[in-house]
Write a structure and sequence with these properties.
Pfam families: AAA_14 (PF13173), DUF4143 (PF13635). The chain is α/β, with parallel strands linked by helices. About 50% of the residues lie in helices and about 10% in strands. The protein has 15 helices and seven strands.
Length: about 300
């Protein structure tokens, strides 16, 4: 990932961390879009004491671990120069059982004691993160959404042209690998897609048919940009169950920033839900990683290129 490129959202985060401590800062977005890099850049710009910890490792996912990290953040705040705050960064915090209640308790303790500790929460499963925020932390946080990189960002950071962006998409971590297409595809499939499915969805949410979830993802990539009825999806997928299951799995994939099913626009909610969705990948890298074409082959295939 290009650590020197500064995404526009960086200015917002720096400005909020310069203010007196008011709210938790919650930074959400798919994996590998630069959440951790952006926070590190903000801390470097501010030149303040900081402690970073990640709960992505299953062995660390406990409330005791969370309390230990918070205490380390408080230590940074006590050691900060007079008049300065410190920053505690907790990555993938939504993977800790009952995390929201623990965060609320520690945050309120610091508010009462006047501890100058800013807290930034990072998460790559926005649906799960926001569920905890709404349940326990209402009124205590601000949300910053970091999406996939757009063409202008990839051009500025890596010198890409439009055709490269259309084909390779907007994952900065994969950008240095594009000269070796097979290696690039393996990286996207193994380090991005499979990690997202296994760590952000299957571990965190009950999924009765994991193999079906993966097939729904592949189908959405193959038919991205096309309207496909749920009945036709059932015909394409083995052991698909019913349309409710398919719609639920599409919602899970959308919450992780992979693919979605866009409903037909209608004034009535009932008509929206009954409509056939347009399948859409959030990042064209996901489509290319599943296909077998080179960029030159893709350009001349007008049906594929669009």
């Amino acid at each position: 990932m290009s650590n020197s490129y500064r995404r526009p959202l960086l200015r917002n985060l720096v400005a909020r961390l310069r203010e007196p401590r008011k709210f938790l800062q919650v930074l959400t977005g798919p994996r590998q879009v630069g959440k951790t890099t952006l926070v590190r850049q903000a801390i470097a710009d501010l030149e303040i004491q900081a402690h970073y910890a990640s709960a992505d490792d299953p062995a660390l996912q406990s409330r005791t671990w969370l309390s230990q990290q918070w205490d380390l953040g408080r230590l940074r705040a006590r050691n900060a120069p007079e008049g300065q705050a410190a920053v505690l960064v907790l990555d993938e915090v939504q993977k800790i059982p009952e995390w929201a209640g623990s965060v609320k308790a520690h945050w309120d303790e610091d508010s009462t004691s006047g501890t100058p500790l800013h807290v930034v929460l990072l998460g790559s499963a926005p649906l799960l993160l926001q569920r905890g925020l709404g349940e326990s932390l209402a009124g205590r946080f601000e949300l910053l959404r970091l999406g996939h990189w757009n063409f202008f960002e990839m051009r500025e950071a890596f010198g890409w042209d439009l055709d490269q962006f259309i084909f390779f998409g907007g994952y900065p971590g994969a950008a240095p690998l594009i000269a070796d297409l097979a290696r690039w595809r393996d990286y996207v499939r193994d380090s991005l897609v499979e990690t997202t499915l296994s760590r952000d969805i299957l571990v965190m949410t009950r999924v009765d048919k994991p193999a079906l979830l993966r097939r729904v993802f592949h189908l959405a990539c193959a038919y991205s940009g096309q309207i496909l009825s749920y009945q036709k999806m059932l015909g394409q997928l083995q052991d698909a169950g019913n349309t409710t299951t398919l719609a639920h799995y599409l919602n899970l994939l959308a919450s992780a920033g992979l693919v979605t099913g866009v409903p037909k626009f209608a004034g009535e909610v009932v008509r929206q839900r009954a409509s056939s969705p347009k399948l859409q990948a959030f990042n064209t890298a996901l489509i290319t990683s599943q296909a077998g074409l080179t960029i030159d082959e893709a350009r001349v295939d007008r049906e594929y290129w669009g």
